[in-house]
Design a protein that fits this description.
heterodimer; A: alpha+beta; Umud Fragment, subunit A; 6-stranded antiparallel sheet; 6 strands; 24% strand; elongated; B: alpha+beta; Immunoglobulin-like; 3-stranded antiparallel sheet; 9 strands
Chain lengths: 156, 181
């Protein structure tokens, strides 16, 4: 059963060209569009990123991806090379401060398509709260797992 | 066979499937509900001034970057985009232009989040750009831009959809006329 779910997820990842086609929103920076615990469905088509699209991107050297909206777009003549500036709907400033936070990125002015791991296509509210609760309170995870094990042990 | 546990399990499984079918139907319905949005943006003035972007941002540290300051007029009626699956509209005015080094450029001048149908009629005059209008090459000479109104419908559940108005006439950026304070 678990193997089937895993394979379906991977096949879906291949179809959408996204390593992880589902992400859970972790911050309030896109409120009121996306709240903490909402699930986003991603895909990463080859066509150029449009203005106003919401992208998930990774800044080199930072582990946690950022989900923000594209507010500037400059396409170069080279195919697939774009310069993008992003901003969270709920933030007052654009994201350059985030791009340049690490010393290795102190000259980074733009996000480029190679930094983008997915583009938001769909939305499902609240359900990601489970994973947030489990990461915030690891005891809950163990309690749930042992509960499942206990039920399986008692009733099978 | 018909233990309490079995019954509870069946009810739970059925209600989960039912909820997901309903969510799917709502998500799909949003794609076929017709809307008749209308909108337009016009620029009543453009001024170009030179200035410093921000002393902390290394690449733009020089003082002679050209910024365009625009005054916009926005008229729109997007109330028909509000239906049972519309959580909010993200509305944004976009300037589009082309330069020899970058064939397609788009910059958001102004944006707004609309969460209620009653607020979806826009009639704004004398609106200044909210974000800096500066090109990658930091110069505006010999560039023509048009403006248009874009919107993104964020659903309660389902697909993100986008739309935009027709582009305005083309505006030519003037020569720099002063320094930004």
């Amino acid at each position: 059963m678990l193997f089937g779910v895993f394979m379906t997820y991977k096949a879906w990842g291949l179809y959408t060209n996204c390593e992880s086609p589902l992400v859970v929103v972790l911050s309030e920076s896109m409120e009121p569009a996306f709240a903490r615990g909402d699930i986003l469905f991603l895909s990463n088509p080859k066509k150029p990123i449009e203005i106003g699209e919401i992208c998930v991107f990774k800044i080199p050297g930072r582990d946690i991806p950022i989900v923000h909206r594209v507010i500037d777009r400059h396409d170069t003549p080279k195919e697939g090379k774009q310069l993008l500036l992003t901003k969270g709907d709920n933030n007052a400033m654009d994201d350059r401060v985030l791009y340049q936070e690490l010393h290795i990125n102190r000259d980074k002015m733009w996000v480029e398509p190679k930094d983008v791991v997915g583009r938001v296509q769909g939305f499902l509210p609240y359900l990601g709260m489970f994973t947030i609760l489990m990461t915030d309170y690891p005891m809950l995870k163990y309690a749930l797992l042992s509960g499942v094990a206990l039920v399986a042990f008692l009733y099978e | 066979m018909n233990s309490l546990q079995n019954r509870a399990n069946a009810v739970l499984a059925f209600s989960i499937s039912a909820v997901f079918c309903l969510l799917g139907a709502i998500a799909l319905s949003a794609l076929v509900i017709p809307g008749s949005p209308s909108g337009s943006v016009a620029l009543s003035s453009i001024k170009v001034v030179t200035g410093q972007y921000d002393k902390n941002w290394i690449n733009y540290r020089t003082r002679n970057n050209e910024f365009a300051n625009t005054v916009m007029q926005i008229d729109a009626d997007l109330s028909s985009l509000f239906h049972w699956n519309t959580k909010q509209l993200f509305v944004y005015a976009v300037a589009e232009y082309s330069t020899p080094s970058h064939p397609k450029n788009q910059i958001v001048l102004w944006d707004s989040i609309i969460t209620r149908k009653a607020r979806a009629k826009l009639s704004k005059k004398g609106l200044s750009n909210k974000y800096s209008l500066i090109d990658v090459n930091k110069k505006w000479t010999n560039i023509n831009a048009n403006v248009s109104l874009h919107w993104n419908i964020v659903p309660y559940v389902g697909y993100m959809t986008y739309g935009h108005s027709q582009a305005s006439e083309s505006y030519k950026f003037p020569l720099p006329s002063g320094t930004q304070s």
